[in-house]
Amino acid sequence: xxxxxxxxxxxxxxxxxxxxxxxxxxxxxxxxxxxxxxxxxxxxxxxxxxxxxxxxxxxxxxxxxxxxxxxxxxxxxxxxxxxxxxxxxxxxxxxxxxxxxxxxxxxxxxxxxxxxxxxxxxxxxxxxxxxxxxxxxxxxxxxxxxxxxx
Length: 150
Hints:
Layout: H1 5-13, H2 15-32, H3 40-55, H4 65-96, H5 106-140
C-alpha cells in the first residue's frame, strides 16, 4: 500500500510536470471547442495531484507535513467526489429517465474513460498522501531514551 522512499522522491521530482499537464488538460476544452467532456475533470484531478506532490515534496526534512497530507486529502476529496457524482448522475438521468434506445455518444464514452482515469489518478494521490503522512509522522515521533539506561 505505501510507496517506497524512492517512489516518493520520483513523484516529488515530477510535480511540475503534473501541474503543467493538469493546466493544459483544463485549458484544452476552452481552446479546442471540445466542450466540457474532453479532459476538464481529468485536468482538475491531475492538477490536484501535482499540487499535492509539490506541497509535500520536502517530506523527509520537514516534520509536520503529515498534517498537510491529511488536509490536502480532505480538501481534494469533495472536489473529486463532486465530479464523479456529476458523471454518475448524468448517466442515471439518461438511461433510467430518458430514452434507452438512443445510442451511446462519443462524448459519453470519453467522459466515462476520463472519469475512470481520474479515479486512478485520485487513488495514486491517496497513496502518495498516506505514504507521506505515515513516513513523515515517524519523523515527529520522539526517540526512546532507553538505549543507554539499564
